Inverse folding.
């Protein structure tokens, strides 16, 4: 009986001393029991196919889909006739079962549905704009608000937030106006139509039909319930509208 236990313990120790291709490639567990000639049962899953063979998530310790590894001796209980040892393959069992949180964050980012911005201008883009008269541009405050999406992972959640940061206006006459923030809405009760916008404006110098477009840049970031997080690639939304620029003419009476 002692000989059977020694052989089983040697088998599981060889599993623990093996070095996996990557700590993130394998997860599962190994159980070995002595007594009755019992050997070792290995259960492992591989996220990457090993060269020359297909992953086998239910094979024995010699032909399974992964190799065992541990920095500490296996936790064992019992005596020589009933001792059992359990090891977890590919990292701590309390981790997210091999889930790549950054990949989940990218998936949540892709699920964000951001509305196209509405062009707000004074004079209104729906009517003619006068040449040599300052034009004010802005994005409505209701649209200038952060958006979020989330995805569930084992034991928690990953959240992604997109916040508008700047607007790039293509004015249709070869001019680009970059505005930090949404811009200042024109208020006829407090602003002079002859004054330029303090932060986001343009003045046309020639007449004609122009295509005005606004592209909003969204800065995105992610975080998980356990405090991990970081930044992601920014997003953009864009809309455009045809605008007529005319020259005002005085009326002689």
């Amino acid at each position: 009986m002692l000989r059977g236990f020694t052989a089983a313990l040697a088998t599981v120790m060889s599993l623990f001393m093996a070095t996996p291709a990557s700590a993130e490639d394998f997860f599962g567990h190994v159980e070995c029991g002595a007594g009755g000639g019992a050997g070792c049962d290995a259960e492992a899953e591989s996220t990457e196919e090993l060269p020359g063979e297909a992953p086998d998530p239910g094979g024995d310790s010699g032909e399974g889909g992964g190799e065992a590894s541990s920095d500490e001796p296996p936790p064992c209980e019992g005596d020589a006739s009933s001792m059992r040892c359990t090891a977890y393959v590919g990292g701590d069992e309390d981790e997210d079962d091999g889930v790549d949180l950054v990949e989940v964050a990218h998936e949540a980012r892709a699920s964000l549905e951001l509305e196209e911005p509405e062009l707000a201008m004074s004079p209104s883009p729906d009517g003619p704009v006068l040449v040599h008269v300052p034009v004010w541009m802005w994005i409505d405050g209701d649209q200038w608000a952060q958006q979020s999406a989330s995805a569930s992972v084992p034991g928690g959640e990953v959240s992604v937030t997109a916040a508008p940061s700047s607007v790039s206006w293509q004015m249709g006459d070869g001019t680009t106006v970059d505005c930090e923030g949404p811009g200042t809405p024109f208020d006829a009760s407090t602003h002079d139509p002859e004054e330029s916008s303090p932060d986001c404006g343009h003045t046309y110098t020639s007449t004609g039909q122009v295509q005005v477009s606004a592209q909003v840049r969204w800065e995105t970031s992610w975080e998980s319930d356990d405090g991990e997080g970081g930044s992601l690639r920014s997003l953009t939304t864009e809309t455009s509208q045809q605008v007529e620029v005319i020259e005002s003419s005085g009326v002689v009476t």
